[in-house]
Amino acid sequence: MPEPLQHGLKIDHARDSVARQDFVIGLRRYVLNDLAEAMRRRYDDQVAPAFARRQGRPFESQDEIHREMLGNTTFQFYSAARYNAQEMSWRSVIPEVASHIDEIAQKAAAITGTAQGSLTLDPSLELPRNVTELDVHLMPGGYESRGDYLAGAVYDNGLTVFSAGLLGPHIDDIGQSFAHYVAERFPEFSPRRIVDCGCTVGHNSVPWAQTFPGAQVHAIDVASAPLRYGHARAESMGVPIHFHQMDATSMAFEDESMDLVVSAQFLHEVSLKDIRRYFAECYRVLKPGGMLITMELAPARYMQPYDCFYLDWDAYYNREPYYRAFRNADALELARPAGFAAENFFEFTVPQYTKTEPAEFARQARLDLSFDNYCGQLRDDMRYYGFGLRK
Ligand SMILES: C[S@@+](CC[C@H](N)C(=O)[O-])C[C@H]1O[C@@H](n2cnc3c(N)ncnc32)[C@H](O)[C@@H]1O
Cα of 350 to ligand 1 centre, how many Å? Predict the structure, then answer.
C-alpha cells in the first residue's frame, strides 16, 4: 500500500482504490525491476552477440540498440506493460481525487485563510507549448486545469503511487536530499532568498524552507492549478513558501535578488532553447557568489549505450520529448553563454536523505561523483544526480 500523504489536503482513499493502487505499485516494480532485468539478460545473451556476429562490431549507440530491440518480444512485452502501468498510476487515483475535489477546495480555503506564505497567480501569463500541448508522462490533461485544484491533486496523489513509497510520506525525498546536500557540502553558504523553478505542487520546495529556516523561499511554475494546491499544501505543513505563476525562462525577480536557484526534474521537460534562456535568467537573478543547484537525469556521457537506450524509453513512449536531448546535452555548454564559468561548474550524486542515517548522509554528501548501476530501477539504495554552478 502506498504510504498515505501526510498533509492537510490528503484524502481518504476507499478500499477498492487502495487495492487498485497496490496493484499498480506491484506491477511497476515487476516491470521496472524483474522485466527490466530479464530484458537486460536477453540483450546480453542474444541480441548483442547476434548483432556483433552480423555486423562484425558491437552496438555503437543507443539508437542502434533501440532499432534492434523494436523487433524483440521481451522489449515489446516490457514496453507494453510499462506503458500500461504508467497510465494505470494516474487512473488509480483520478476517480477518487475527482470525487473529493470540492472537499479539497474547502480544506484549501480554510488552510490558506491564515497563510504565512503567499500565492500570486498571473492569468495573463502565456503558457509554453511544452505544458499546453503535452500530457507529459501520460498524465491526463497535463499540468494545468485552470480555476481549480484538480491537476495539483492528481499529481500529488499520482506521484505517491508512481514513486511506490521511495520518495517518503511527503514525496519530498529529492528536495530533502538536495537541500541537505547543500547544507552539508557548503556549510559557509547561508542563502537568504531561494527560488525553486518548475515546482509543480511545491513538494520539493518545502524541504528548502525546512533546511534553511532563515531563508525566504519562492517557488514558481507556469501552471496555476498545481500552485494553488501547492500553496495550501505547504501552509498545511506550517511551511511558508511564496508561490508565483511565472515562467522560469522569463522571471519577474529583480537582478541579483537570489542567493540560490534550484530545480528538480524540471530541465528535462523543456527544450534546449528554453534551458539556455533559463540559465540566462538564473545568471541574471543570482547575486554574485550565488548558487544554482539542479537535480536531473544523469547525462548520457556517464552511461553505457544500453543504459541510454533504457532511459530513452520515456522519450519515445512516455510523452517526454525533451528527455533524450537533455540527457545527450552538456549542461555546462548550455550554461556558459549565460555567463557561468567552467571552473564554477560541479557535479555530484547524493543518497536518499529520508532513507539514510544523517551521519551516513553527511559522509556520502562529501564523496566525489559516483554512479550506481541500477539506473531506472525502483530501489531503496539509489542515488540522485545533480549539478551546480556558482556565479
Ligand atoms: C516534472 S515537473 C517538476 C516537478 C517538481 N519540480 C519535482 O521536484 O518533482 C515540471 C514542471 O515544470 C513546469 N514548467 C514547464 N515549463 C515551465 C517554464 N517555462 N517555467 C516554469 N515552469 C515550467 C510544469 O508546469 C511542471 O509543473
Answer: 22
> Is the CB of 199 inside a 6 Å radius of any atom of ligand 1?
yes
Supply the range of the domain harboring residue 319: 159-390
Instruction: Return d(Cα 216, Cα 112) in angstroms, integer.
Output: 18
* In a shared domain, residues 342 and 250: yes
Whether residue 218 is found in the same domain as residue 339: yes
Query: What is the domain count for the chain?
Result: 2
pLDDT tens per residue, range 215-259:
999 999 999 999 999 999 999 999 999 999 999 999 999 999 999
Instruction: Indicate the residue among 79, 94, 109 that finishes a domain.
Output: 94
Among 72, 94, 116, residue at a domain's last position: 94
User: In sequence order, what DSSP letters do the residues of 95-127 get, joined into one string?
Assistant: HHHHHTHHHHHHHHHHHHTT-SSEEE--TTPPP
- 223 ligand 1 Cβ < 6 A: yes
Residue 226 CA to residue 345 CA, distance in Å, equals 31
**70 CA to middle of ligand 1, Å?**
31
**pLDDT value at position 164?**
85
Given a cut of 50, the residues of the chain with pLDDT beneath it are 373-378
| Residue 204 CB–ligand 1 contact under 6 Å | yes
Report pLDDT for 376: 47
